[in-house]
Design brief:
The structure is a single chain. The protein is mainly alpha-helical. It contains 10 helices and no strands. The two termini are about 20 Å apart.
């Protein structure tokens, strides 16, 4: 990664130094544990998350069903693990996609003239001022719902924060002496942005990516809970919360299991992001 001379931040620690920091490893450990549980849990607990056994419906936790069963007799542990693969995996893909879209649009705005840059700022100001969940709900509904609908809805709105960070950082770095030197040496604008600007705007984008990952998990669960996301019988945490509402008094485990999964996952990702942000900015 190229070093930014005269920047307000100290050089970003390399990946090896980052992983050597015990504070970050401590914050990252719960995320790794959750990822391993989601990835390999179904291999250990091989109950079918879609198998219906009506004679076992609404049972409490037991040796046979550690988290109990739902209204159709399906094993809740198997459904939480299977739902985690979809919830976390889809949230990560959506977040990476919005990061790529936002970073590209932000750098394009920074490289454009005054009129295009001003238009970009006004559009992003409008999108930031709109209620995110309500607008995502409307877009997902118009897109037909399901996985495709919620992916379109979140990507259509969540790119704004990445684009603003990429635009501001690109404009700041573009004024540094090293960029002038690169241009004087004959570097094309594309080469300047790819080789010099993009590597130096990655640290703030990386911090934002972790924060937005947590937000995407909540948004995905919220849209599915409202009925426009993942549809039954597919196991997904938000959809499981929705299915458990009518049985909250009789079988609270139907909401507690996916609810705790969402809460713990978002909390661990957020704490990891906070530790990552402190390491990226030595002043903190």
């Amino acid at each position: 990664m190229s070093t930014v001379e005269g920047a307000s931040h100290a050089p970003v620690p390399a990946g090896r130094s980052l992983l050597a920091d015990r504070r970050y490893l401590l914050a990252l450990a719960p995320v790794v544990v959750i990822a391993l549980a989601i990835a390999f849990g179904p291999l250990v607990w091989q109950a079918d998350p879609t198998a219906q056994v009506l004679t076992d419906r609404l049972q409490g936790p037991s040796m046979e069903h550690p988290l109990g069963t739902d209204n159709l007799g399906r094993d809740l542990l198997a459904r939480v693990l299977a739902g985690g693969r979809l919830s976390l995996g889809l949230s990560l893909l959506i977040t990476l996609g919005t990061c790529a879209i936002g970073a590209a649009l932000g750098m394009l705005a920074a490289a454009s003239g005054w009129l295009a840059d001003t238009l970009f700022l006004r559009v992003t100001d409008v999108l930031v001022g709109l209620p995110f969940l309500l607008l995502a709900l409307a877009i997902a509904g118009l897109s037909g719902g399901g996985i495709r609908g919620i992916a379109i809805a979140i990507c259509a709105l969540a790119w704004v924060s990445f684009a603003r960070v990429a635009r501001d950082e690109s404009r700041r770095i573009r004024g540094l002496p090293m960029i002038a030197a690169a241009v004087a040496s004959g570097a094309t604008p594309v080469r300047v942005y790819v080789r010099h600007i993009l590597p130096n705007i990655w640290p703030p984008l990386g911090v934002l990516l972790v924060v937005r990952f947590s937000h995407t998990i909540l948004t995905l669960a919220g849209l599915s809970f409202l009925g426009v996301g993942v549809q039954p019988p597919t196991a997904e945490w938000g959809a499981m919360l929705d299915q458990g509402v009518p049985y909250i008094e009789r079988a609270p485990q139907m909401m507690l299991a996916p609810g705790l999964a969402v809460t713990v996952s978002c909390l661990c990702v957020t704490l990891s992001g906070m530790a990552f942000e402190r390491l990226m900015d030595p002043r903190r």
